[in-house]
What we know:
Elements: E1 4-10, H1 16-29, E2 38-42, E3 45-53, E4 62-70, E5 73-79, E6 82-83, E7 88-89, E8 106-107, E9 119-125, E10 133-139, E11 142-148, E12 169-177, E13 180-187, H2 207-210, E14 218-222, E15 240-241, E16 260-261, E17 278-283, E18 294-298, E19 302-309, E20 320-326
Amino acid sequence: MVCTKQTYTANATWTAVQLADMFRSAFIDAGLMADWYDSFLGSTYENRILRIQYDATKTYGTTYYWFAFKTDGALMHVTTGWDPVAHVPTGTQYLDYFATTPASHLNFGVQPISSSTAISLVRYTSGVDTNQSWFVLRQGTLRKVFTIFKGSNPVQVWIDLNKGFISGFHVPIPQTNGVMGLMSFGSGPLLRREITKGCALNGVTNSSYYISLDERSIGYAAIGIGSNNLGNYTYGRPFIHLPIGVTAANPAYTSNTAPIFHSLPISSYFQTPLPSDIGISFHYATNVFLTGDTLVVTSGSEEWEILDFSANGTAVTGASPLLVARTV
Length: 328
């Protein structure tokens, strides 16, 4: 199976409404919603609310994603409740929402953004698990990649949504450290009522801590394949090392092997792993990439597009982490 790819474009000179409508179309086609839960102009932003019910029977089983669009940015935060008549979040500040205006939202879009240049949102929906879609917001060579878990993606049984909420907004975090390649996944934004890490915000009112996506629960690593690379294992966080085959080190491999890994979990809190047509790869032969480049396994029968990457400073022996979607 392969991913369904669709590109949504706002041509120059586009407006904030057109930017919001681009997201609307992509989210509807991905099955995230039938339409926005709320839509309004406020604080000079075009505001849109995406409601996802992870367990409607639980007190905090519904997460509201508050998007705010302007011609110079795309912002987002989360709330545990929303009043679609008054167009405001409900509950208690810092516990259930950060602010009543979007000025302190997470800027999750490309930076800088300009309405004088076309901008696109590319949707990759898995053909194996249509509940999973990844999105790439692109303007020129700038990009932002993200996914939002649907309500049909179950949370772990030990997550008590009667005590707090969970955010399904996740981003890949590709990095390099020397010749190492690292791929982890961040989630957020945070509130004090976020069930896994929100308690760390006790007493905190600084917005930067609430919009951090550097809350990684799962990460993957690949080694450098040059001689004497053993000293390159210092990268500060626990990562799962994925198997890379190097003939010079292990003659059981008849050729150097860096597979595309799929079916890996990207969140400790949702039960759904990556499907078999969305994967992680660590590339060695080159360190020059662009989003949308094709990674060819077998021409005409297995080809993958690059969604996100981090180019290792050392080609051939250094691992460049890639997030890829199979299109052929």
